[in-house]
Amino acid sequence: MRLSRAFLPTLKETPADAQIASHRLMLRAGMVRQTSAGIYAWLPLGWRVLQKVEQIVREEQDRAGAQEILMPTIQTADLWRTSGRYDAYGPEMLRLQDRHDREMLYGPTNEEMVTDIFKTYAKSYRDLPRNLYHIQWKFRDEVRPRFGVMRGREFLMKDAYSFDLDYAGAQKSYRQMFVAYLRTFARMGLKAIPMQADTGPIGGNLSHEFLILAETGESQVYLHRDLLEFDALSQPVDYDGDLSPVMDFWTSRYAATDEKHDAAAWAQVPAERQVSARGIEIGHIFYFGTKYSAAMGLQVAGADGKMVVPEMGSYGIGVSRLVGAIIEANHDEAGIRWPEAIAPFKVAVLNLKQGDAATDALCDRLYAAFDPDAVYDDRADRAGVKFADADLMGYPWQAIVGPRGAAVGKVELKRRATGERLELSLEDAIARIKA
RNA sequence: CGGGGCGUGGCGCAGUCUGGUAGCGCAUCUGCUUUGGGAGCAGAGGGUCGGAGGUUCGAAUCCUCUCGCCCCGACCA
Hints:
By secondary structure, the protein is α+β, with helices and mostly antiparallel strands. Helix content is 33%, strand content 28%. The protein folds into two domains: 3-336, Bira Bifunctional Protein, Domain 2 (BirA Bifunctional Protein, domain 2, 2-Layer Sandwich); 345-434, Anticodon-binding domain (Rossmann fold), CATH 3.40.50.800. The strands form six sheets. Strands 3, 7, 8, 9, 10, 11, 12, 13 and 16 form a nine-stranded mixed sheet that branches. Strands 20-19-21-22-23 form a five-stranded mixed sheet, sandwiched between helices. A three-stranded antiparallel sheet has the order 4-6-5. A hairpin with a 5-residue loop joins strand 22 and strand 23. The mean pLDDT is 94. GO terms for molecular function: proline-tRNA ligase activity.
């Protein structure tokens, strides 16, 4: 993407409405534009990041055996009356009427709908287990939206729903999602810690929240340091095998939000291993048995011919929230420091002197080597503007080319995360970035 | 939902108390100079002050109603 042709606006000054770092930086970097309280338009830079996050979520869901569908944003009130939640959900649900005065709603979640869909086709125990997910915009009419995309009213969520024949099967599905979540967040460069959680209004009796540590987190959390030091990607995962050991590792070390905090258990953790900090919730998984399958009338024939009500769970990741959370965990005074896996572009080519033949030539070759995963700052601006914008936008690599280096065929590489700088030949620079 | 605050060019703000018909910085446009960390000089364009009603000779400033947004708390992916 050539910046001279791109819609990648930046702001020098911070809009007064933005309080926390991720919100400020998303506005300054031109990632989003607020259109009303808790509702955002995603501009090219933000949209690219959102899609990268979404894609990692998708790949790990698929790997874990879940299958992607896409359900609508608008649902009928009748579907929710069947489960009893139309009245129970309260004012957080955005209710609408169509031209025939039919009562509709903008979906805040999809247990009813997915169960209703699944019920139409699943007739036998052979149709189980299944796990269906979609990545779709949700709307929850929060009393108080805030923190930019971290607590919006409209937000992009991945929600998966598992259907199993019995409790043992449901536990297996739960563990699959548990492990898939660890991998998903680790791939984004995040240390996400699963913690025992309240099941909330969705109900059920087994639930974990996944949180990352960040000063601006909304929850107080307590955890064993082992959990921060373990690399969730270090071991291969066999989703058909027994995942209990993995889950046991994570659940045997202390980790809890203040709601579930147990002072006595916490005291058992060696003091030097105790970590108490603020956390941001980025995922939540529930097992809730037959709550919705029973309410929605889902039954399948068991092997013995008797009808069985399947056991369900649901598994959510706040995809748009993750963008904000990742920034909270990866920024400094100058701007964002994207982890490579979700960076909007891997490298920014900074041409410090437009029109200098040697400089232009080196930049062209660098850009060609990485397009479309590169931005080329070919604007008629001064060097300082380009440095500042590249730091703000947070591309993992800056390939800086000016007449001084170009005269001797050198490119200066700057690594955003560390500030490390290297002076390399064109070929070495390309190889270094690709490494 | 309880408490607090704010709406004035794209962004950040002053002006409101003590009514007199809108100002500053950044950004934008033009020209010249400058060119490795958000340049300098000169010139230019852009708002009728969230909205409605009222008081007044006159309202961004006073009054009433209303809409929107933000912060703290309680609740949530």
